[in-house]
Amino acid sequence: MVLVLTAIVNMRGLLKAAGQKSMSAALPALMSVLLAAYPTLARAFSAMGENEIRMTLFGKTLNGEYQTGQAWTERFNTDGSTDYVEDGIAVRGSMSFKNGLLCFSYPAQPEHSGGCFEVWKRSPNCFDFYGAGVDEVVTVPLTQRRFGQAWTARAWFADQDSTCVTEQIS
After folding, report:
1. Which residues share a beta bridge with 2?
2. Beta bridge partners of residue 86, listed in sequence order
3. For the chain, how far is it from start to end, CA to CA, in angstroms?
């Protein structure tokens, strides 16, 4: 996605450097960039499936934040258990999948409600979580999810720098 945006933003410079006066002359180069970026673009516009979530997130520790800015850390263990920490308080939980959603439960700590989430991979180290209601339906409109808006939580691998975009492009 960043590659495509960069190519479009820099198109004037590319045209000027190539001595071209029109966009149509640069169309083959732009198409090459778009085709090369297609797998990344397709993934950015759809939620991750159960297998992709298991392969990508399980066995990893993620740092994250809620829309409020509240920070958290959670270890997604390969056995489906989790170790969640917020404000220095550690809670043991479990993960499961329901209708394509990743669900968290913290039975020993009822004040940690858990819940089910649709997970979207935004960039190499950025994942958005969209909460689902009791009927397991995500209430954030698809158009907002496709553009990384109105997420419930956002996370990244704890051992790497986050690649989450913090500001909207206008």
Report:
1. none
2. 89
3. 15
